[in-house]
Prior knowledge:
Elements: H1 6-25, H2 30-40, H3 46-71, H4 76-96, H5 105-122, H6 136-156, H7 161-173, H8 177-202, H9 207-257
Amino acid sequence: MFELELSLLLILGLAAFFAGYVDAVVGGGGLVQIPALLSAFPTTSPATLFGTNKLASIVGTTSAAIQYARRVSIPWGLALPGAVAALVGAWFGARAVAWLPSEIMRPLVLVLLIGVAIYTFVKKDLGAVQGPRRSRNIEIPLAVAIGMVIGFYDGFFGPGTGSFLIFLFVRLLHLDFLHASVTSKIVNVATNFAALSFFALNVEVLWKLGLFMAICNLTGAVVGSRTAIRRGASFVRTMFLAVVSVLVLKIFWDLVSA
Length: 258
């Protein structure tokens, strides 16, 4: 890490800070952090950089979850089953990369994200307040299914994980955007842990750089989670739409430039 130029180190630190901020509010920090790492290390294995990204991300995501837990009531009955399922799903998703090219996911994810953005934009009251809760017999299996499917997706491909989690928690479990964001952080900690464990056991991880970026990511996560709590569900909804829109543009660009 100390062989890097100071200017490059500062750029990576700023990228990690902003990634932590965005991730804490609505997910999508990988949009900032991964391109920054790929630009800084163009000849390094992507798997090494993905592992380094997960190391930085898991610290910020965990911090955001703790910040939310202190100030917002977390629906643990949904978050914990979803997190356990996501842990399993993410591990198998990371393993699936070895035999199934992740490029096949891009067109499907693009269509899904466009659908999510349109639906959220049209439904102005979606996630503004918490809707009527479903029965426990329906809620818990839904939380497990969401965790397993999105966990697998995060381990296998990744972009938009936080956005998909928040949307499904709002649409299927009737949470408002703030509580959906809180719940998604708990689940995302599990997916990051599973993916980081897989990378740490199978590829080289830039531990020193990852820890430096983790501190920056942590700082951004603290600021982001406090901002989201202070400004509420409408702010999270706006950020959600912004991040999904950027994801759509990025994946579309990747497809046309491939």
